[in-house]
Write a structure and sequence with these properties.
This protein is of the alpha/beta class. About 40% of the residues lie in helices and about 20% in strands. It contains 10 helices and 13 strands. The strands form 3 sheets. Strands 8-12-7-11-9-10 form a 6-stranded mixed sheet, with helices on one face. A 5-stranded mixed sheet has the order 4-3-5-13-6. It has a two-stranded antiparallel sheet with strand order 1-2. Strand 9, helix 8 and strand 10 form a beta-alpha-beta unit. The longest helix is centred in the first third of the chain and has 28 residues. It is rod-shaped, with a radius of gyration of 31 Å. The N and C termini lie far apart (about 75 Å).
């Protein structure tokens, strides 16, 4: 196998193509923004590298047979390279691009609509593909490159391949029907969870495992009677009178009339919202723009929640 010719430069190939199209060293230089001697030097170096003449010099400048073959191949390569460079520049300028986001179900139903609206207003030319999934599947989506960014209640762990940035802590509330005896309270002690039929949302999610550990440490064992995956299912069961549900505080905005959220105390329970990404894999400009929007929206919603 022949060794690759590493010293042939793109400038030399551009010069050869320009000569082939203009039949003139001078005109080729004008097209490339170079002097005629500079073009001649590039061609001489190219000919030295390939070991034969490529240009027929004289009153009329033309190409040898091999020179023409090289021009034909170089023209296609240069078009592909220029197209790729232009595409990269447009991505960097956010004129085009795509970001794939894996989102846990709860975050997809609550926080994501605010993010999508802001992202579309800022970057209407970018494509955003949402991969909604169970939050414990986000890491798999990142490893398989089905997603550039993960969003949801992703918990940090010992896997150095994943970088997790916590954005906010929504906390956990108890959601009940408005005709429930507890509905007259604005907050309740978490020990009531042991006395009520509870609906638990996606109990295998890492955030819920942390919540369970906190409750056990406080000697509280919720009376879980229904385990569901989707927020909409939990809402339907609450409305049907099947029980009360521990849900993230951010779910308040999704609750229909007839359901009230009550703060849980002793202990207060955390529901973190985080961005996850591969630690050693650079984000595309579109993905960086999405992460910036997520941070902005999270901060805005946190300020709005703190207002009296």
């Amino acid at each position: 196998m022949a060794e690759p010719i590493e010293s042939v430069s793109l400038r030399q190939l551009r010069a050869l193509v320009a000569i082939g199209e203009t039949a003139s060293f001078t005109a080729a230089g004008e097209r490339l923004g170079l002097s005629q001697p500079s073009v001649s030097h590039l061609i001489r170096r190219l000919e030295a590298e390939v070991g034969q003449p490529l240009v027929v010099r004289g009153r009329e400048v033309s190409l040898t047979r091999d020179g023409q073959a090289m021009v034909d191949a170089a023209r296609r390569a240069i078009l592909a390279i220029d197209s790729s460079i232009q595409e990269c520049r447009e991505h960097s300028d956010l004129k085009q691009g795509k970001v794939m986001v894996a989102v846990g179900h709860v975050t997809a139903a609550t926080l994501l609509p605010h993010i999508l609206l802001e992202f579309r207003q800022r970057h209407p030319q970018l494509d955003l593909i949402v991969v909604d999934c169970m939050v414990q599947q986000i890491r798999t989506r990142l490893f398989s490159h089905e997603a550039d960014v993960g969003l949801g209640a992703v918990m940090p762990d010992d896997d150095s391949r994943i970088m997790v940035e916590q954005l906010s802590d929504s906390g956990v509330a108890l959601f009940v029907r408005t005709d429930h005896p507890l509905a007259r309270h604005d907050e309740v002690d978490a020990k009531v969870l042991a006395e009520l039929p509870c609906i638990q949302l996606n109990p295998e999610a890492p955030a819920w495992l942390n919540i369970s550990r906190r409750l056990i440490a406080a000697n509280i064992y919720p009376r879980v009677e229904q385990r569901v995956v989707l927020l909409s299912t939990a809402i339907g069961l609450i409305l049907a009178g099947m029980g009360v549900a521990m849900l993230p505080q951010i779910s308040r905005g999704q609750m229909p009339a007839g359901i009230k959220g009550i703060a849980l105390r002793n202990p207060a329970l955390e529901w973190p919202i985080s961005i996850a990404r591969l630690a050693n894999y650079p984000l595309s400009p579109a993905a960086q723009a999405f992460v910036a929007v997520v941070r902005f929206v999270s901060q805005r919603l946190r300020r709005e929640a703190a207002m009296p």
